[in-house]
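Hi D.,

Good news: the full-assembly prediction came through. Inputs first.
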Amino acid sequence: MPQVRRNGNNRTVPSGKTDHRIVSFEGSYPRYSALPDGSLPEIGLLGRSNVGKSSLINLLAARKRLALTSATPGKTKTFNLYKVDEDFYLVDVPGLGYARSSRSERNRWEVELARYIRERDQLKAVLLLMDSRHAPTSGDRDAMQFLKDARRPTVVVLTKCDKLSGNGRAKAKRAVAAAMEEMLVEWPVVETSSKTGRGKDALLEWIDRLAAVD
Ligand SMILES: Nc1nc2c(ncn2[C@@H]2O[C@H](COP(=O)(O)OP(=O)(O)O)[C@@H](O)[C@H]2O)c(=O)[nH]1
Ligand SMILES: [Mg+2]
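Then the structure:
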């Protein structure tokens, strides 16, 4: 377990770990079977193209523009591993439903992704990214159901919250809460913005806690 301390608000926070993480790119792996064997815990980032996965990795890193953000997703899907300090990997797991991918590529990736979520021993938790501007899509709901069935600890990350007013954010949280209630899951929800840094500390707190679970 990481050391924890109480801060002024009496929240439990990881000791001295909240800022200045060193994040380094480890590699891209198109197949589950090619993933490295190491014993470091992994935290998966799941979400459709453009939801903000790369931006979130940049937000969590001390260094800017590490995971290249792009509006044009590549055609071949890969697991992208980023090592955070010597503590854990963030694993960027592209989602499904890319218009630009061929059907055979989508099928291939669906199998790889499902295997990773179901079987990967190192996977301690999944951050499920959803765009705060839209109610959960059918793809988001499929991912929720899949994570529930796989019994993976999950944190819902609402992205791009800078684009919404306080009212809009409250509405987004209600929409996610309703979907979770329907699905009989209770996962934490963190509002984030990679533009303003909103949610960074709360998210790191969850990650540290979940990565430390055996
Ligand atoms: N305003 C705003 N734009 C964002 C945020 N996160 C990502 N974006 C933008 O959304 C687009 C897709 O982001 P990216 O991180 O590449 O998504 P990915 O495909 O899931 O890796 C880029 O143009 C980003 O600049 C955010 O928190 N706020
Ligand atoms: Mg990306």
